[in-house]
Amino acid sequence: MSEAPRFVEIDWAGRRVRVEHQWIAPERRAAPLIVFLHEGLGSLSMWKDFPQRLCDAAGCRGLVWSRPGYGRSTPRAAEEAWNPDFMHRQAHEVLPALLEALDVDVAATPPWLFGHSDGASITLLYAARFPKQLAGAIVLAPHILVEDLSVNSIEKARNAYLETDLRQRLARHHDDPDSAFWGWNDIWLAPGFRDWTIEPELASIVCPLLAVQGLDDEYGTLEQIRGIARRAPQTELLELPACGHSPHRDQPEGLIAASTDFIRRHHYNHGD
Prior knowledge:
Layout: E1 6-12, E2 15-24, E3 33-37, H1 50-58, E4 61-65, H2 86-101, E5 112-116, H3 118-129, E6 136-140, H4 148-163, H5 166-170, H6 177-188, H7 199-202, E7 209-214, H8 223-231, E8 235-240, H9 247-250, H10 252-269
Helix pairs in contact: 1-10, 2-3
C-alpha cells in the first residue's frame, strides 16, 4: 500500500526547501527500492497510479517525489532563473540530499531509478556521477541533447500555457503552476541551452540500463535513446509503437511488463 504524501526538508541552493514525497509498499523492507523522477512539468501526483502498479508487479518498494519548484514542494523563487546545468544540479545535489534525508543507504542497498523526460536525464547524470550508488536505471524519453523537434514542441507548450486552460490543469498538481512551467520553459527555450548535451557523461554509466521511447514522441527522436546505447553498450532499448512522449501513460501495460522483467533479471542475477 502507498502511504500518504509527506514532506522532508533539505538544504539546497542556500536555503531550506521542503520536498513532497510518498512511499509505496514500505512494508516490503527487503525488496528493491525504485525512486521515480518526474518530467519537466510533472509532480508526484501526475504519475497517478503508475508507480503503485509497477511496484506491485515487480514486488518492489517505491519512492515518488516532487522536485523543488514542482507539486507541493517549495516553489521556485520568482526571481530565480534556471541555468543550463539545472539537471546536473538536480542529479548531483538535490537527489543525493533527498536520499540522505530519508535515510536511504545507497552504499548498502543501492536503489533503482525510474525517470521520465527531464527526470530521465537527471537519472542518467546520477548514474554517471555515482556509479556504485544505484542498482540500475530505467529512463523514459530521456534527453541527451537538444533537438529542433524538442524546441518546437516546447514553443507550442508556451503558447498553450498562455492561450488555453493548460495553466488551470497544471494548477491541480502544482501549488505554483507558474513556478513549474516557466522554470522549465524559459531554460529550454533559452538560446544558450541549444548546445546543452550530456553525451560525454554517458560512457561513465556502468549499471544496467533500459532506455524507452515512443515512436511518436513529439519531444525527441530515437537518436536520444540510440545515442545512449552507443556510449553505454549495456543499454537495452525499448521502442514502443503507438506511443508519444509519455510511455507510462500511452503504453502502461507493455512498459510495466518490460520494466518488471528488466528489474527481476538484473536484481536476481546479481544475487541480491
